[in-house]
Design goal:
With about 270 residues, this protein is of the alpha+beta class. It has helices spanning about 10-55, 60-105, 115-135, 145-155, 155-170, 200-205, 235-250, and strands at about 135-145, 180-185, 185-195, 210-215, 215-220, 225-230.
């Protein structure tokens, strides 16, 4: 049920680069083995030809020319093999760099969650999918309460730690098919696919009573939440605006729970 946390941009880049280089090394080993066998076969044939010529014919000019051609061909193959490996290595490095840049473009470097740019593209695609196939879709916006208090009283490193810890919690609390996003600042988004409104409480309950360690003491991370369930005909902006309105309306209700659930979603 839990969704693995996308690695932070730096970690993802290193992981992708290491994997690509491992595949490249394996490919190079196979090519070396194939070409090595070819060279061995050619040299064995050349040695056999020389032995036969010495034993029965003597080293005539034609035989020497033939041996020279075989050796020249072998040298040419080795040179072409060197050029091929150099080209493959260059192509592989370009692929690695392209993957690194792609990851950096869609992943938030601090939390490792997908960023707003990627989420907007994914949300537009899922709205179109829901429109075609009638699948359910819920957009959930979450905003950490009193985040400024953490930065002001514990420092920005503590604030970063709070954001990363909450991001990990979001990833653990959602399914692999869902999407956890750092929407911006201390605001996050969950894109819950094939999820009905009465199932929303199951997700939010997993986020409740979460605490982190600050200055050696447990500190509760509370949040406000707004949600919007897709209805046929809903547009991209309408879905986000509805969730955003509920988020700030709930945040303003000081006497209400910090993350009130819709009536249909209460346990």
């Amino acid at each position: 049920m839990s969704s693995p946390l996308p690695p932070a941009a730096g970690e993802a880049s290193e992981s992708a680069a290491a994997e690509a280089r491992a595949h490249l090394r394996e490919l190079e080993r196979r090519i070396v083995w194939i070409w090595g066998n070819a060279v061995v076969v050619i040299l064995c044939l050349t040695a056999a030809l020389v032995s036969f010529s010495v034993a029965f014919l003597g080293l005539s000019l034609a035989v020497r020319a033939l041996i020279g051609l075989v050796l020249l061909f072998t040298a040419h193959m080795l040179y072409q093999h060197y050029r091929l490996r150099k080209t493959q290595r260059s192509l592989a490095e370009h692929q690695i760099q392209a993957e690194v840049f792609r990851r950096m473009a869609i992943v938030d470097q601090l939390t490792g969650l997908y960023n707003r740019r990627f989420a907007e593209q994914r949300l537009a695609a899922e709205i179109a999918r829901s429109e075609r196939r009638g699948h359910s879709l819920i957009v959930v916006l979450l905003d950490l309460d009193n985040f400024k208090h953490i930065n002001d009283n514990y420092g920005h490193a503590a604030g970063d730690f709070a954001l990363k810890s909450f991001a990990e919690l979001l990833s653990r609390s959602t399914r692999g098919s869902d999407l956890a996003v750092r929407w911006g600042g201390d605001e996050f988004m969950l894109l819950l696919l094939d999820c009905e409104l009465d199932q929303l409480s199951r997700v939010l309950v997993r986020l409740d009573n979460f605490k982190i360690d600050l200055a050696g003491k447990p500190f509760p991370l509370r949040f406000s939440v707004g949600w919007s369930a897709y209805q046929p005909g809903d547009k991209f902006d309408e879905l986000l605006e509805a969730a955003d309105r509920k988020l700030y309306a709930n945040k303003a209700l000081a006497k209400e729970p910090r993350h009130p659930l819709p009536a249909a979603a209460r346990v």
